[in-house]
Amino acid sequence: MSTPTAAPPDDPLLARKNSSTPSVAAAGLAKEPGCKKGSSDLLYAIEDNPSWCECIIFGFQHYLAMVGGTISIPIIISSYLCLEESNPARGVLVSTIIFMSGVITFLQATFGVRLPIIQGGNFSFLIPTIALLTTTHAPCDALPLANMTQAEREEAWQVRMREVQGSIAMSALFQVAVGFTGLIGLLLTWITPLAIVSTVSLVGLSLFDVASKQGSGHWGIYLLTLGLLILMSQHMRDVRVPVPFYERGKGFVMVKCQPFRTTSFLIAIFITWAVCGILTMSGTLPEGSAARTDLTMPMVARAPWFYVPYPGQFGMPTTSVAGTLGMLAGVLASIIESVGDYYACARISGAPMPPTHAINRGIGTEGIGCMIAGLWGTGNGTTSYSGNIGILGITKVASRRVVQVSAIIMIVCGVFGKMGAFFVTIPEPIIAAVFTIKFAMITAMGLSTLQFVDLSSSRNLFILGFSIFFGLSLPKWMQDHGDAISTGAPLFDQTVMVLLQTSMFVGGFLGFLLDNTIPGTDEERGLVAWKEKLQTSAEGGDDVINTCYDLPFGMGLIKRAKWMRYIPFCPRYKGISKDILPSCRKSNKKATST
């Protein structure tokens, strides 16, 4: 599925506006951002409502862009849960995470930050999840699956899933508290750019072995998928393809689209998936090859046509101190990434910068999303998807209604059990290639925060290099020496082991500690530009402009009640940053160079 782009002058959708469309940056830096069409060159602004047909087309585009990355998470987790290839529970996990992504997307777009942001599976939880499963449970290879009954096999993986569920739900309480109490503003004064770089970049860097392990199942298919992904997403992203498009009053007309810019991942996956299918049917691939498409066909046959996920479907969630603290590292990384996504989404969609109350409400809603995702049994949390934010700039459609329709599409697709099971038939080498690109982009997103930092400073280079290198080295050593911590207190030993095996916790903590203790000027540390970015939203702004961040109902009562100005997630709340955030100008005068 492709969507008309903003570039071609013969695009009938853009012809209705009778104006040329500027670049994404130009749209994001409009002088008079607003909630509806006006000075902006967007086809649809946040509060505009396209026709139902357009909503479905644009909404399905968002679904296609997020589903590839989202379904890859339960596929990774399945191998650590000791789930057999033919077990239909793999399809249930996929259906559940798609279903819950739709529910949380609808909550976020309607009641949360109210920006057109898609919510999906969170890669930040993968590292602590893998650390938890490999530390607190016996390896899957050690289980005598051949001698176990069906009930024993089910219990073997469900007991692991229940601990993951409970740990994610408990850690999400911290995100809920940080958001709805307004503490996110205070935390961001201590979480500096160098701490962000080491935390977010290690989310991607530390997962390289997961991609290489699954890619090694068939290097040929892995490299073919990787080559197609690079070719289509980078070299062919500006290639225009004529596609028939229906326009009211004119019927079907040919529209020049750029399908490789928005759906390159799916096109590459479908091509290599088809190649694997042909090689499987022709017998070219040997029995048991990881590239065969028939490995999970028994699972598809056993999967139900319809399945509605429900809380506790794998039993009552359990939790542990080690699991909860480990998942907190994923929560912190998710908070940092989501705040950046809110600013990026506002810029690209031509909206005013999100005020403090919208950020607080967005982070709190994401916390609620992680809680219910954990309780429902996705094996993961949810977060905002940066890739879908880029689609807003390409399609020039920033309508909140489109994202809400996309959420409904996810919910509908999630209840079709066969559909969830069908996606699991994608061979592991193909998924590994997608991981490689996704993890590389996450790493790059973390490193992009260095734009605020003075990279000519030896102080900054030391903090950056040491936190990343040690953040990779120590967890790797801890994984190979599971008995390194032995104090006689099993709970303490288990907690420390999980934390020290989580790269983003180790690297992020070192970046946070060193950057806040080693002397350096605010300009050198990047705090001047960083705080200016944060304070852009903290000062609130014009009430008329910021109406797109108002709640969908009850605003009359909220505006009449003066006491609501003190509620951090209330639209009348203007923030506490002026009292809490240190003044850049004052601190700059006192700072001395090292």
General description of the model:
This protein is mostly helical. The chain has one domain. It is 60% helix and 3% strand. It has 26 helices and four strands. It has helices at residues 12-15, 24-28, 52-80, 89-110, 126-136, 150-180, 183-187, 193-205, 208-215, 219-235, 259-281, 297-302, 321-348, 356-376, 386-395, 400-414, 417-423, 428-447, 458-480, 490-500, 503-517, 522-525, 527-538, 555-560, 577-580, 584-590, and strands spanning 119-121, 241-247, 251-257, 382-384. The strands form two sheets. It has a two-stranded antiparallel sheet. A two-stranded antiparallel ribbon has the order 2-3. Strand 2 and strand 3 form a beta hairpin. Residues 1-33, 537-545 and 577-594 have low confidence and may be disordered.
**Which runs of at least 5 residues are low in confidence (pLDDT < 50)?**
1-33, 537-545, 577-594
Annotation, overall tally of beta strands: 4
As a whole number of angstroms, the C-alpha radius of gyration is 24 Å
Helix content: 55-70%
Q: Determine the number of helices (DSSP H or I, runs of at least 4 residues).
A: 26
Alpha carbon gap, first and last residue: 55 Å
Strand content: under 5%
Provide the spatial order of strands within the biggest beta sheet: 1-4
Spell the H/E element sequence.
Answer: HHHHEHHHHHHEEHHHHEHHHHHHHHHHHH
Mean pLDDT: 79
Number of domains: 1
Q: What would you call the shape?
A: globular
Structural class: mainly alpha
> What summary fits the major beta sheet?
2 strands, antiparallel
